[in-house]
Design a protein that fits this description.
The chain is an alpha/beta fold. About 55% of the residues lie in helices and about 10% in strands. The chain has helices spanning about 15-30, 50-60, 75-80, 90-105, 120-125, 135-145, 165-175, 185-195, 195-210, 220-225, 230-240, 245-255, 260-285, 290-295, 300-310, 315-335, 345-350, and strands spanning about 10, 40-45, 65-75, 110-115, 150-155, 180, 215. The strands form two sheets. The protein has a five-stranded parallel beta sheet with strand order 2-3-4-1-5, with helices on both faces. A two-stranded parallel ribbon has the order 6-7. Helix 2 (about 50-60) packs parallel to helix 4 (about 90-105) and helix 7 (about 165-175) crosses helix 8 (about 185-195). The longest helix has 22 residues, at about 260-285.
């Protein structure tokens, strides 16, 4: 049977991966053999479900199972505006919600309810753009109180992880599967992939399956991560600035293996050169790393460190000449003045620094 005092639980927040992961944890917990009884899971679309369907899901005592776990999506969202007197449908919605409250307040002991809402920001609740900077939990608590949901337990809103939290999560996921990774390489993964935890989860699974040993090295990441373009762009810019034609040509195949178009990759190179020029200007001012982050709009220590390292011994006129050459080729492609198949040959073999 279910725990007393936690008959209705609410999950919400912007991090869909963590929200879904926790929901799966709850489902596994309530349906495990350790419970001593068989629990049936019922899923309900709260926005489309009628009062009769909700009554059947919430109030009908299970026949084949000893208990029911009822997962309802976006039910509160449907009724969040019932106090808005300007809406014509408010009276009917209010009556329906009062009926639902009666169900919640008299749930059979065999029922456990999980409400899952798609809210990501306070404005999703209030429909007021000015509320975006407010605290989501505060707004959710206020809405719960307004709707009279007294016997509901709010799980803290699932927020996107901060960079250090993301690195810790990556390390933990790998460690749980018998793999160790350094803090630096965990940071590399988060930098390569970003904070999309669905993609991160897929990449981590690939790493686990590919790496036979217990230690994850950087070369494993360069092979496996679906988003190697940042690494390749860093290396290609270095070789272009060093006028190392052999290495530049060697890097070209790995660029196109990523599946990106010539136009897109040129724009990546152009963006990288703009960042380097700004970073070079900042280097003359002896500013802190936080200033680099603010001016470049990049908040990854790994990427910032690479940019600072790239401009360390470069002359500003060399950076400008490469940037101008990339810009010329970009325009030439757009105007049809050059075939995109030979753009990189032109960029690499042309004596751009003469």
């Amino acid at each position: 049977m279910f725990e007393n005092g936690k008959r209705i639980e609410l999950l919400c927040g912007e991090n869909d991966y963590l929200k879904k992961d926790y929901l799966n944890f709850l489902i596994s917990k309530y349906t495990s053999s350790d419970q001593g009884s068989f629990t049936e899971v019922i899923y309900v679309d709260g926005k489309s479900a009628s009062i009769e369907e909700l009554q059947n899901s919430l109030m009908t005592i299970p026949f084949f199972a000893e208990s029911n776990l009822v997962v309802i999506h976006n039910l509160i969202d449907k009724y969040k505006n019932i106090t808005d007197t300007k809406k014509k449908s408010t009276a009917k919605s209010s009556n329906n919600w009062n009926t639902i409250l009666e169900f919640f307040n008299s749930l059979p002991i065999q029922k456990q309810i999980i409400l899952v809402e798609d809210w990501q920001t306070p404005k999703d609740i209030t429909n007021n753009p000015n509320d975006e900077r407010k605290d989501l939990k505060v707004e959710v608590d206020r809405l719960i109180d307004k709707l009279g949901l007294k016997n509901l337990t709010l799980t803290k809103p699932f927020k996107n992880l901060l960079p250090l939290e993301l690195e810790t999560w990556i390390s933990k996921q790998l460690l749980n599967n018998g793999k160790k990774i350094s803090n630096r390489n965990a940071r590399l993964i988060s930098d390569y992939v970003g904070n999309d935890m669905w993609t991160l989860s897929n990449e981590i699974e690939k790493i686990i399956n590919y790496c036979q040993g217990g230690i994850i090295e950087e070369e494993h990441l360069e092979i496996l991560i679906n988003n190697p373009k940042e690494i390749v762009i860093f290396k290609l810019v270095d070789s272009l600035l060093d006028q190392d034609i052999a290495i530049s040509f060697k890097n070209i195949p790995s660029i196109f293996e990523s599946g990106y178009s010539t136009q897109y990759l040129l724009s990546m190179l152009s963006r990288q050169m703009r960042l380097l020029i700004i970073a070079k200007q900042l280097s003359f001012q002896n500013v802190s790393k936080n200033i680099y982050k603010e001016k470049l709009g990049i908040y990854s220590d790994y990427v910032i460190d690479n940019i600072i390292s790239q401009v360390g011994n470069r002359d500003m006129d060399v950076l400008f000449k490469l940037y101008e050459k990339i810009s010329e080729l970009d325009i030439a492609i757009k105007t049809g003045a050059i075939n995109e198949n030979i753009v990189f040959d032109n960029l690499i073999s042309n004596r751009i620094f003469s």
